[in-house]
Amino acid sequence: MAGGVESIYFTVTVSNKFVRVFDNFTTPKSMTQFFQNINDEKKEVAVTTQGNNVGSVDVHVSKDEEDWFEHEENMEVVAEKTYNINDKAFPSKSKQEAAKEDTKN
Which pick of 10, 14, 34, 65 has the fewest CB atoms within 10 Å? Predict the structure, then answer.
């Protein structure tokens, strides 16, 4: 693959004041912490394996209000980036409810 990998697709779950990013491509051989190199610069992202043998990366988000929710979505996640809960990929609970109402009417 010329030029290296610039980003990797993950499944993202938002809950309890952080974003947990599940690596869809890595199946660790052991239940241990490991590092995955991403990008030509070989940036390292700490990945902790879960009971289902899916690697997860904790990407922290910041938000003042306690409007946290669980949300799963395939999105592009770049190494060493902090995702804010206000980003388009992570709408707030109230925005989600409003969107549901819009689709009903």
Answer: 65
